[in-house]
Specification:
alpha+beta; 17 helices; Cytochrome p450; three-stranded antiparallel sheet
Length: 393
């Protein structure tokens, strides 16, 4: 896979469950790290180099290694195929397309928060963070709300397969995950078949009614839906959980938002910088390449660490501090280059709306005594197992 020697880290053994900042600090000590079956790229300039060169560092080949039977549109392709998909789908996820959703998102957020105000306690992860993005997805795709728990079951089983080293997690059996993946595939296949030709305002119906040359095949449409379920639900949920944990643990920072709600967009970016819920992404080399003096052979797997790239001291002074007043927050939590997250505008809107509506109603809260949120690890995505909050008077 590679020539030469690199420092080696067993990512499964990082203190991630209790101390994710310490874990990212450890990973960022060296620009390249041997993490088992792949090489981790941690330094910002190298991260950018890899992400901006899909011809040399292929996303398509990384997904081929996973053996997905579906074309996961658009992330499992490289330009020029990826460019075509991106151009077709971008109008559905642009700021102009997303902004009209704000009123409905606020109503959904308020409906989730109101009972918590009265009860004065909650598990934020289970009751808010994991529920809100799924409801948004269900509404966007015109699905019945009573499918919410089923989607959670499907995505959880499949997502637990990945880990930070690029190898399969043992948290769930391959057989179980494949069975759940099959169930999700069957549901989406039937959904695409029945929606084809139906005129409606939801995103799926509109995508399925695109005219040639933009028309997507059933297989492509199923792959798009499949990717949205796997990549678009947990990421927002996990980012919200992390953000609220940091606000609960730093009441002085929380007070800044309460005193000046106009800071919430900047706060959202800073919390995303510190905690990208998809903190690493995989690429595969298409030929032999030298990276920071280290030679990678063709077909080498590279894990690109966005989380450490977000802590470059030349871009972010005191990078482990929370600072809602950074003059320029060039974080890469949504990726970079051709494969930058298509749903980033929607994710931002969801987070900003939730933070705004929560702090209007619940300005004072703390982590419930006797509880301690832990990061689920090892995993392909990174999030909290729970976040028990007590509402203060």
């Amino acid at each position: 896979m590679a020539t030469g020697s690199l420092p080696r880290i067993n990512t499964d053994k990082l203190p991630m469950p209790e101390a994710r900042d310490d874990s990212w600090r450890k990973m960022g000590e060296c620009p390249l790290v041997d993490v088992g079956d792949s090489i981790a790229v941690t330094r910002r300039d190298l991260v950018e180099l890899v992400l901006k060169d899909p011809a040399l560092f292929s996303s398509k080949k990384a997904f081929e290694m996973l053996g997905s039977p579906l074309p996961l549109v658009p992330i499992a392709f490289d330009p020029p195929e990826q460019t075509r998909y991106r151009q077709i789908l971008q109008p559905f996820f642009s700021p102009r397309a997303i902004k009209p959703l704000e009123c409905d998102l606020r109503n959904q957020a308020i409906a989730l928060i109101t009972p918590i105000v009265e009860r004065r306690e909650c598990d934020f992860v289970a009751e808010v963070a994991k529920v809100f993005p799924i409801q948004v997805f269900i509404v966007l795709f015109g699905l019945p709300l009573d499918m919410r728990d089923q989607f959670v079951e499907w995505k959880d089983a499949v997502l637990r397969l990945g880990s930070a080293s690029g190898v399969t997690s043992s948290e769930v059996s391959v057989e179980e995950a494949l069975a759940k993946a099959g169930e999700l595939y069957e549901y989406l296949s039937e959904l695409v078949r029945t929606r084809r030709g139906v005129v409606a305002d939801d995103i799926l119906s509109r995508v399925l009614n695109l005219a040639p040359p933009d028309e997507l095949s059933d297989e492509e449409a199923i792959g798009l839906c499949y990717l949205f379920v796997l990549a678009g639900l947990d990421t927002v949920a996990d980012a919200l959980g992390f953000g609220m944990q940091r606000l609960a643990e730093n009441p002085d920072k929380r007070r800044e938002l309460i005193d000046d709600p106009s800071l919430i967009p900047a706060a959202t970016e800073e919390l995303l910088r510190l905690d990208p819920s998809a903190p690493f992404t995989s690429r595969v080399t298409t030929r032999e390449v030298e990276l920071n003096g280290f030679t990678l052979s063709e077909g080498s797997q590279v894990m690109v660490y966005l989380s450490t790239g977000n802590r470059d001291e030349t871009l972010f002074p005191n990078p482990y501090d929370i600072d809602f007043h950074r003059p320029e927050n060039r974080h890469i939590s949504f990726g970079l280059g051709a494969h930058r997250c298509l749903g980033s505008h929607l994710a931002r809107l969801e987070m900003q709306v939730l933070y705004e509506e929560w702090h209007k109603r619940i300005p004072n809260y703390h982590i419930t005594e006797g509880t301690a949120p832990r990061v689920l690890w090892p995993r392909g995505t990174v999030g909290l197992d729970s976040l028990h909050l007590t509402i203060e008077e």
